[in-house]
Amino acid sequence: xxxxxxxxxxxxxxxxxxxxxxxxxxxxxxxxxxxxxxxxxxxxxxxxxxxxxxxxxxxxxxxxxxxxxxxxxxxxxxxxxxx
Length: 83
Fold this sequence. Notes:
alpha+beta
């Protein structure tokens, strides 16, 4: 499904997408919606079940101008425990 269609189908929701195409800036262009919800916590629960798939989380609502976001990369699906 193209990203434009995903945006129209799930406005104001968090969406977990197994992507099949990205653009040069790594924005999702196309993929399959694995889960969608107004609750980001529900999406995070579903994320833990993706098992190494190429996934992205997108919020498809209005983002307040005074909102700051920090992304932290950690081995979410690491086969080995942290030492």
